Structures are given as C-alpha cells and as structure tokens.
Amino acid sequence: MAGEVLLRLLLLGLIGKKTTLYLTFVIESINILFLYFIFFLNVMPMLCCTGVVTPQVEKPLYPKAGTESTAIDDGSSPPITLQRSFVYFGRAYDKIYVNHNGHLTFNSPYSSYSPERFPLNGPIDIIAPFWTDLDNREMGKILYNQYTSGMVLQKATQDINTYFPNLNFKAEWVFVATWNEVAYYPNSRTKTTAQAVLISGGQNSFVLMNYGIIASTSRKVQAGYDTINSEHHYTLPGSFSSAATGSNSNFRLSSNVNVPGRWAFRTDNGTTGCTFNGEPVQLGDSFWSDSTCAQKCTCTTTGLQCSNQPCSFSQVCMPDSFQFSCQSVQRRTCTVSGDPHYYTFDNKVFHFQGTCTYVLSEQCQNELPYFRVEGKNEHLGSTRVSWTGLVKVFVYNETIELVKRTTGKAKVSKDTSLNTS
C-alpha cells in the first residue's frame, strides 16, 4: 500500500514519581522517517544526549607472558603446580586451573561459559576477572606464568604496600594469568584483555584484577570472586550490566584502589564482614536500606559504606533476600501498523478499519503518574481502508503530537485540562 504508520511504545515502567516513556513513531511512505522521543521525569523533553568516550589503555597490566594454553573453546589449562602454596580465605592450594572463559579454579577445571551471579552458594572457590563466553580458537592468547624473583616481585611488593599499608608486606611469589585480546564466542574477531594476579608472601595473600582493552558485547559478564558456600564473595560494579564492556567499561575506568583498571583484594583469611541493624552482611554484598531504595550500602574492608544511589529510571525498588534491591522492569511493546493492525502488550493481534481516536496505552494504577497515548485513524483513499494519521502523547500536563507526513517535527504544548488525579 502507499504508506504505513508504525507506532512502537516501549514502557520501561512507572515507578513512584519516576516515569520513563519510550516512544518511537515511524512514518513510512517512499522514504522511511524515524522520530525518537525519550521522556524522563523532571527532564522532559530531552531530545539528545552526549557522552565522553575515554581512550582505552593497558597501563595497569602485569607482564603478558608465559605458557600459552591450548586454543580450544570452553577449555582449561592442565593442572598447574604452584611453586608456593596460595591461601584463599583459609584454604591452602598447591595447584590451579586457568579456564578459558575468564576464571580460575583450584580443585578442578571449570568449563562454564554462562556467567552466574555471585554469591553462588556452591561448592567452588573461584576467581573470575572476566567470566563470559570467550573463544581463543582464532583470536588472542591465554597465558600464565609464575615468578619467585625479579622485577615482577618488586612491583607486587610495592603495589600491595601501597594498597594495604602498615602490613610491611614482601611478595615471595606471583602468579599471572592473562586473557590477552581474546574474542567473544563464536570467533567474533573482537579483542578483550583481562588479568588475574595472585600474590603471596608470609601469611598474606592477595588478588589483583587488571583490565586492558575490553570490547563491547551484549553478553553478560560476571567479575569478582566467590568461595565455597559463599562465605566470602565480591562482585565488581558493572557486572551483569551494559557497564561491563566497551570503551566505558566500569571494570577498566573504575577501581577500589584508585588505579583505573585495577581492583585489589586481600584473600588470606578475609574479614568478618559487616552488620546492619544487628544482621550480618558479607564482605562485598550490597543492598538498599529501605523500601524507597534511596540509599545503597556496601560492605567493604573498612566497614559498611552507604551513599545516596536511587534506582535508575528503568528499575523498581523491590524486597530482596536481604533488605531491598533495585530490579529492572520488563519491557513490553505495543505496535500499530498497516491498515491498521494492532499488536498489544500481551502479544494479542487485532485488525479493524475504524476511523476513530483510540487509546493505545494509559495509566491504570492511581499511585503512578498519569499518561495516555492516543492514535487517530483516517481513511486511506477509500472508505473501506484506514490508517493512522495522528498520534498524541499526554504526560506531565504536556501534549506531544506526531502527525503523518510531518518530517522531523513534533508539536509540544501544555494541557492544563488533563485530569492527572
């Protein structure tokens, strides 16, 4: 037919006083024209946004050298005999496995390519600088090496005494595992570099996680560590989110020791954790302190640290296993297209040729901010055929009109008569 109007409504959630409405209105005729509108609470309308892309560097990495693991998907190194025992939260290990999907284990190889959120509450001690589905068959190398003397030990001694002062620490052994410019599965030709550095000396042991270039991916990534029964665990901020990868990866740009791209942890016996309202909190655990999710608290080696960090516009505050957490709201799509066809949020389909004004979506819970989206149909060259000619969005006492054959423009006006009660 001569033209088609496609309306897509992406409602990410109406959360307290926070509403996010994603509206995409597409007018198709000879050319396809796209108009994108994003509305945020108290910052509406916002028509574009910019960001700063930080150049990626490899400054925090230890030497990328040593034995190369076999190029095999979901593989592991053979058992590596350690030249010094490594104490990992009270358990001394004499061997280790470098697993190709971005993690280290001690008792056996671990081929899992699908990351799981820490804490696992399982029977495994694991160090995971970058747990995701990696593929070293054609791109990149997985390397490991041990050091008992030389410049690497001097560097490790200096680093640990900087990050953990008053220990008077002297490194006696360093193990470096590097996933160097490895691709995401399957042979994606991307390049991602991550590193785990195990350091021991005397009764003390430490783990460094270093990050170089991190390619962007839609895959989930878990970074951090976990222990048997999750007595001790930590998740790097950005895990299981879009902030894990790409040029603005939180792993690479942030740090817990003020060195971007490096994260340092003491792992010999750990700490006793923290308490909140008399209840124990494990080291590394985070939670929101009440049902408003206004304040996020994290148990650190220096105690419980809390700061104002409310849920984002695409999240809702919900009860969790401990206190509360910000949880993502599921997306649903409503589509109107053709002459015309209606695809509802619950995936039902309707077809009819009416030429009235129809409510496509509307607020239905009184405690949420009011919104309504209307579509007005008109005849298409014949009284037997209709299509959508006008779309109106009512939100926060504003009316936004999207009109057929109006390229790159929308009409925005106040509507003081709109009932928002």
Automatic annotation (TrEMBL):
Compartments reported by the entry: Membrane
Pfam family for this entry, one: NIDO
Ranges of residues in domain VWFD: 332-421
Keyword Oxidoreductase (UniProt): no
GO biological process terms, semicolon-separated: cell-matrix adhesion
GO cellular component, one term: membrane
Xref: SMART domains: NIDO (SM00539)
Domain NIDO: from-to ranges: 129-270
Keywords: Membrane
Keyword Nucleotide-binding listed: no
Annotated InterPro entries: Alpha-tectorin (IPR052749), NIDO_dom (IPR003886), VWF_type-D (IPR001846)
PANTHER family in UniProt: ALPHA-TECTORIN-RELATED (PTHR46160), PROTEIN PRY2-RELATED (PTHR46160:SF9)
Protein name according to UniProt: NIDO domain-containing protein
Organism: Oryzias melastigma
